[in-house]
Design brief:
The chain is an alpha+beta fold. About 60% of the residues lie in helices and about 10% in strands. It is a multi-pass membrane protein.
Length: about 280
């Protein structure tokens, strides 16, 4: 149910980006969306039609090579954002500054794309073609997607001009940052590496107060060459302040290194599950 909400909301944001920012401000994009915008700027062909028909063609080519679940989700997503675009594309008005349009186009597009990606779907286009070429010829997905997107963006020079093409590149850069930030924000975590003579007490407090887990790592200091245990803890962002408070209460002189963690797999570290690592004395 949550994924359906992300797909619907993400598709609506993408449609708003195209209709209210991309179309009236002479901004393009990469992939199939970029092609649809360039055809609109050149021949006034509605992007909703181009996106829909273009995806149908890509779907017919790729259905043998991609997982059925991915194809179903992508089909639903394209149908939704094409429908939303069809409803909205006649209401957009120029902002008067294409650069501002490009910046907010990239921002909204990045957020919408992130929601769609988080739901395990896509809006078709270059990434789908790249996945097919990966399956068939073992080509690099990231490189192929990048090349296809660049070809579409560069071709914009002949339609929207050099200046607006540069604005488009700025928008794409902002969109990439927005996508990474939103996806990271959904499942953002921090990894704490702690060295303290009171690590046992810190670990106990983490398990009882945060309902989280921890593990000991063997380590040794170079200067004194002494063996000790380093405590490694992964917590969600909303628990960072609480964990720092615990550490400070137990040992205000503890050595702490905190790293951003974008992805955690291969175990369960959080409340409501069995803990993969026990922090009792048997680990010492």
């Amino acid at each position: 149910m949550k994924n359906i909400f992300y797909i619907i909301f993400g598709s609506l944001i993408v449609a708003i980006s195209i209709s209210f920012l991309g179309m009236p401000n002479s901004i393009a994009d990469g992939g199939l969306v970029g092609i649809s915008l360039l055809l609109y700027h050149a021949f006034s062909i509605p992007p909703s039609i181009v996106n829909f028909l273009g995806f149908i063609i890509i779907l017919l080519v790729s259905y043998k090579y991609l997982a059925k679940s991915v194809l179903i989700k992508s089909t639903v997503t394209v149908l939704l954002f094409s429908f939303f675009t069809f409803l909205l594309e006649s209401y957009g008005q120029p902002l008067g500054d294409p650069l501002v349009g490009a910046i907010f186009y990239g921002l909204f597009m990045g957020v919408g794309f992130a929601l769609i990606l988080y739901a395990g779907s896509s809006i078709g286009g270059a990434s789908t073609i790249a996945l097919v070429l990966k399956k068939k010829y073992d080509w690099n997905v990231v490189l192929v997607t990048f090349i296809l997107d660049i070809l579409v963006v560069i071709s914009g020079v002949f339609v929207i001009g050099i200046l607006n093409t540069f604005y488009t590149i700025i928008g794409l850069f902002i969109g990439k940052i927005a996508t990474d930030y939103v996806i990271g924000g959904f499942d953002a975590k921090k990894a704490f590496s702690i060295i303290s003579p009171y690590n046992k007490e810190i670990a106990r407090r983490v398990m009882t107060d945060l309902s989280s887990s921890a593990t000991y790592l063997n380590s040794s200091g170079i200067y004194k060459n002494n063996e000790h245990k380093m405590l490694y803890i992964v917590v969600k962002n909303n628990s960072v302040v609480h964990l720092r408070k615990i550490i400070n209460e137990v040992d205000s002189d503890a050595f702490i290194v905190i790293n951003n963690v974008k992805d955690v797999s291969g175990g369960t570290f959080f409340a409501g599950h069995n803990l993969p690592y026990e922090t009792d004395e048997s680990q010492e």
